[in-house]
Every structure is written in structure tokens, then in C-alpha cells.
Amino acid sequence: MDNEGKTLVAFVLGLAAGTLLGLTISPDSGKRNRKKINDSANDALYDLEDAWEEGVERIKEIADIAVEELEKYSKKMTKNM
């Protein structure tokens, strides 16, 4: 796992831990706390989905670059034969 992935995991875990800690010491009612937990979980899910989509796009870009480079290399090799 690269540094970006580790940072994302640390962020999500920190978000979850902070949310749970805040809710356990919160003076709000159980119903309100459950709504806060649900809202926080949804926010974290959206953040994770965004990070996933960015990762997929980056992989596609890298794959496109690799294909272009392989095509260049192949053309160069066929010229030299």
C-alpha cells in the first residue's frame, strides 16, 4: 500500500474514532446521536467513493500511458529489424 492509501485509511479511521468518541460523550438523545452517526457514516462513504473514483481514473491514465509507450517501443523495434 502506498502512502496515499495509508493516508486515506488513517483519515477514515480517525474520522470514525472521532465521531464515536464525540457521540459517546455527547449530551444529545439517542435518536439524535443515531442520526449523527448515520450522517457521519454517509459522509465517510462519499469521501471513500470519491477517493476510489480518483484512484480508478489514475490507474486508467497510467494504463493509457503504458500502452502508448509500448506502441512507441514496438514501432522502434520493428524499424530496427
Helix-strand pattern, N to C?
A: HH
Count all strands and give the number.
Answer: 0
On the 0 to 100 scale, the average pLDDT is 82
Helix content: over 70%
Main β sheet profile:
none
Terminal-residue CA separation: 41 Å
Note the beta-strand portion.
under 5%
* Contiguous uncertain segments of 5+ residues: none
Number of helices: 2
Number of structurally distinct domains:
1
| Structural class computed from helices and strand pairing | mainly alpha
**How would you sum up the global shape?**
rod-shaped
What is the CA-based Rg, rounded? Answer: 22 Å
Chart the SSEs and their pairings:
Elements: H1 3-24, H2 30-80
Helix pairs in contact: 1-2
Short synopsis of the structure:
Helices cover 90% and strands 0% of the residues. By secondary structure, the chain is mainly alpha-helical.
Plain-language structure description:
The protein has 81 residues and is an all-alpha fold. Helix content is 90%, strand content 0%. The chain has helices spanning 3-24, 30-80. Helix 1 (3-24) packs antiparallel against helix 2. The longest helix has 51 residues, at 30-80. It starts with a helix and ends with a helix.
Which features does this protein show?
81 residues; mainly alpha; single chain
